[in-house]
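for the writeup, i need someone to sanity check this before i put it in the appendix. the sequnce is what the collaborator sent (i think, or maybe the updated version? ugh). structure was predicted straight from it, no edits. if anything looks off just tell me and ill rerun, i have time this weekend
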Amino acid sequence: MLVHDIINSGREEDIAIVDEGRQITYSQLKAGIKKYRNRLYEIGIRQGDRVGIFSRNSAEFVYAYFATASLGAINVPINFQLSTRETAYILQNAGVEHLLTYEPLNFEEKIVTQHDIATFVEKICADAPDLPADFDENNPCVIIYTSGTTGNPKGAILSHKNLVHNTKQCKVFKCHRECKSICVLPMYHCFGWTCTVLNTFYRGAELHVMRVFKPKEMVDMVREQEITDIIIVPSIFKLVTALAKPEDFKTVRFFMSGGTTLPDKIVDEFRNKFGREIAEGYGLSEASPCVFLTTHGEERQGSCGKMLDGEEIRLVDENGRDVAQGEVGEVLVRGGQVMLGYWKNPQATKEALDADGWLHTGDVGKVDADGYYYIVNRIKEMIISMGENIYPREVEEVVYKFKGIKDAAVIGVDDKLRGQVGACFYEVQDGAAVDVRELKRFLQKNLALYKVPREFHELKEIPRTSTGKIAKRKILEDYLAAKGL
């Protein structure tokens, strides 16, 4: 199956998309994709060409993506919150010549031809030909540019097979034809695209598009549209927990969190208020993105679920040896959802994908006797202090339990004596105050002394990425700049 064939799962007369009052059936969705396909072909798009999409969530985003895929061309979805400089780098690196956008971008020089995504198909075009005979599921479908921890972003190449395989693995959500999913997460992001958009269409269900995330509007949409499936990130769970009433979520059958680790505090507050559980998943763009998912009805707090059909998992130590159950090791995954490699970056590809096809995720995890996996930390975020390994997530979980803490990030910083020490950056809840001495004493009671951060910094606001992750790189950059380093 190719990615654009996914929409054939829906019945022609059923609603596929609800977007700002527009109800689009599966039949109309196919017609819209065909119009986009014809228009793309007319402007010269052919197999292997890269097409940029710089847009908020919308039906037009869906049309553009599927139409590009159906020509054998390669989608390059771009985070619309990036600066012009950052966007220009991606366009030039991917060799994009045509960009579909919801607003014109002002580059210093013309590097791409821009098209208004909303009016792109107003012109009637002749039908584009069928895909060439040499095209199959192993051809690239999309290049997802990952933020990375250093340097310029890398473009993870995902094939049609990668995306379809991962979509099928989402069967653990138990989504079905009568379900209604809300698309809050940005469509340019792999998590939102696979788990919400592709999964919804593959099950023949109904997708409700939220163009701009606003907490109150999301709660209203869930209640008024009788949404059944909500897949979001921890920061959004935190916002809607404070805002929504239990009756607002009465039609919801499935809540899932991904994108970053889900703090216990958010789970506890959500359960206490709504009496419901949150399923958690884990993945990365290089795996389309899902590696572990929790089956609906089998939630286990702290765990991101179990391994999926059609994949292999290893947990290995620094020497590449498999670790025992309960011990921590780097998560390696091999399966149909693992990327082809990085665009024009053979060295990075070699570092991420070994000769046997194992994707080295850079994340540290462990597995229990029941097969539930737990992500402990990023390898690159692990702090080594006086030879001791400190996992920031463990420390952060304890920090979150201290009264008055709203958000927290523990980051390793250089120390002449210990090599590294932990620095705790935190944001306080509205109207609250945090006494650092009391916070230190609280941590000393609940952690080994070597795990307790040596520095504490209160921030007015913890910065986050567009997908809700705490932007630790930004925090560290600001910290170093303040010290003149």
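The chain has a mean pLDDT of 94. The radius of gyration is 23 Å.
thx in advance!!
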